[in-house]
Structure formats: C-alpha cells, structure tokens
Design brief:
Helices cover about 30% and strands about 25% of the residues. The protein is an alpha/beta fold and about 450 residues long. It has two domains: about 325 residues, Rossmann fold; about 100 residues, ANL, C-terminal domain (GMP Synthetase, Chain A, domain 3), CATH 3.30.300.30. The strands form four sheets. The chain has an eleven-stranded mixed sheet with strand order 4-3-5-6-7-8-9-13-12-11-10. Strand 14 and strand 15 form a beta hairpin. It is globular and about 65 Å long. The chain starts with 16 loop residues before the first helix and ends with a helix.
Length: about 450
Amino acid sequence: MPEPPEYQPDRTLPASREHIARIQSVRKRVQFARAREARWYRGRLDDIDPERLDDPDQWAKIPIIDKDTLRQWNHDEFLQQISIAESGEISEYWRSGGSTGRPVFYPRTFEDVTYGLLSWGRSFPCIGISTGDLCHISFPIGIHPAGQIWARSAHDYGIGMSWIGSGTAVPSATQIELISVLQPTVLIAMPSFALHLANLADAEGIDLAASTVTRIVTSAETLSEAKRRKLEHMWGAEVFDVFGMSEAGLMGAEGPAHDGIHIWTDMFHIEVVDPESGREVPHGETGTLCVTPLYTGHATPFLRWNSGDIVSYIDRGESGTREAKLFPMIRHSRRTTGFFKIRGVNVNHAEFEDHMFSVEGVGDFQGVLSTGPSGLEILTVRTEARRGQDPEQLERELVAGIRHSFEITPQVEILETGTLARTFENTIKASRFVDAREQTC
C-alpha cells in the first residue's frame, strides 16, 4: 500500500498538534488495512468502519493484543498469524526485551528499520545531545534493537558513538577504562549497569563523577526517583529516561524538565485505557498503555498493543522545548503489578527499590523470594556494599529499616562487588526481583 503523500516522519518534526491529529487519522486507516491482511485479525475487525476510526466507539471495538497472545505460538506460528511481510522484504529481526517468558522475534522490513532509526535518533535533540558529543553505549549490540539501532541512528544526527556493548561483550573494568581513555560525554545504558559501573569504579577508588560524562540516558528498566538520584550522585551527571519497545521502536524521551516521557505521536498512536473495559481513561488518571505503531508496522501490523505499562497521559510538559510543545507525555505510575506477598504482607517492588536505593551504603541489590523449611516465605536481600561501608553495619541497617518500613524481617546477604552485574548482564532487563519458591518447594 503506498504511503500517504502529505507526511513522512523526519528530523524536522510535524508543524503542530493539529498536524499530528491529521497524520494520525490517515495512518490509523493505513495500519487498519494492513492488520486486515494478518490471519489473527481476520474476523475480528469485520464490524468496524475503517472510515470512522477517529470515533472512540469504533476504535474501542478493535481487540487489544498483548505478548501473552503471541507466546502461545512458536516462531513459525507467530509469523503465520501476525506477519504480512514477504521474505524478501525483511531486513532484520528484533527480539522482545521482557525479563520473563519466552522471547518473541519480530520481522522488520527495510521501511520499518528506516523509521526505527528515526525514532531512536529523535532522542538526541530531545535530550540536548548534539554534534561534538560522544556517546558510550552499553546496551547489547545484537538482535535486541536498543543497542544496534540506537548506535546506528547517531550517524544521521552527527553524534559520535562508541559501540561498546554490554558487560558480557566488553568487561566492566574495560568499560571504565574506555570511559577514561575515550572521554565520552554521554553514557547510554540500563540503570542497573550504570550503577554497577559506578560501584565497581568506587571499589577501585575511581571517581566517575570526575569523568567527562555529563549525561546518562537510561532505558529498558523502570527508573525510580531514588535510582535516578543515586546515579546522578555517583556519576555527577544529569539522567534522562527514554521509552520504547521492540513491538514499535523508541517512542519518546524526557526533556530537561524530567516530568515525563514525550511520545512521538506522529509515529505512534497511544491510549491509556481501563484494563477491564478497554476504554480510554481521563487524562491524568492511570491505566494500561496501548500502542498502535503508525509507521513501524509494515511486517507486524499491531493495533492497540498492550505494553503492560501502567501510566498516565499528560497533555503538556514543562520543558519548553519544541518536543514539549508538540508531543504529550506519559508518566509511569507508582502503582505497579509487581509485588511479593510475604506471610500475608504485600511488598510493592517499586517501593522496596526506592527504599533500598535510599540507603547510602547500598551499591546494588536483588530481592529473592523463597520458601523456608517451615513452609513460610523468606525474602533474601542480596546486596553489594559501597567502598568503605562496614558489611555488618549495613546488614543491621537493612534488617532494621526493612522491618520498620515493610513489617517483614529479611535475610541479608552481602555480596562481592560485581556479583549482581554478572547476574544481570545475562538478561536484557535486570531480574531485580526473583520468585524462587517453585525451585525450593
């Protein structure tokens, strides 16, 4: 199907929010027509008028799709159900980045990759990265798109890029040495790995706050305020968060106000919906984020993809940049589906992470829920102490603080610096909370 002639996403950005609304109206119809070609959507879109997709009642009839639907199929079945691309159209595959469940490999056409490069590249001007900056990227450089697409996109924006890769490819100590030798101004990494590098450097008496890095760009994990403050303190750098997914691309980035993620709505139609009704919730209220890629869906024409993120839709941010004027924001909610139920007490993962990173002596941590000999749940907090911290004192402080804040008494295990990084580096997203009860029952 030919592209509409009136707009092609590029670096110049659309003219106005009214322009974006017209773009969305056209592109939703294009994507709807593509979806009708996919086997899974056959029969599911028949009662929807493609000329009335701007009508919320019509749009809400489209079934929401999520990763659990995809995981019931093997790769061949997935391609048969969802993909509409011919083999000669496929440029590459992108791996899904979830920390649990079987990964999915999405085919991407040459057009998809072109728009993907643009979506990642837009993060640079939004964050204030420009010609003269050199980025040190520590995401895996491979089939997961965050590393290789992000690194490739820098060329079109005149940004220097050191293709370092993850800690499994380039050892952490070598990465610290490269930061000293190559003197990058920007670190692009998962928050966990950025913390690990800072902890490892601290253990060696190296002050990364005195390095040339002035900005840290994070993705792939939730960035809590406590984690942001710890990163900023240890690196002496301003931290920016971005948001994306393999199903769509990099969808947006923070501006200098750090008040939410500005979403490129000329490229991605977003909704924040009630998970029960599938209808949009009022702006500012929390709900489930659903995404319809408008330009990166040539091979996999997803409509209303449930990302699993719990967010609120914010119409305007405070950054004052062109991106802030054009694009609305999403703000991840403090509410989360992640929690441990320990002896009748719900322990919210986000709140627990905030507590741990607020403790000065903690470098990094992992919470493991297991079942003890008595059959009761045990929370083991595996943590790395910062240089100069008395391990026994840290253990006492953690036990007392967790008991006071969460009304549970944990077991605390003090680890050698670097232990958790070796664990986390084997996954796209750090498994900071592990439910190991099945293995120990």
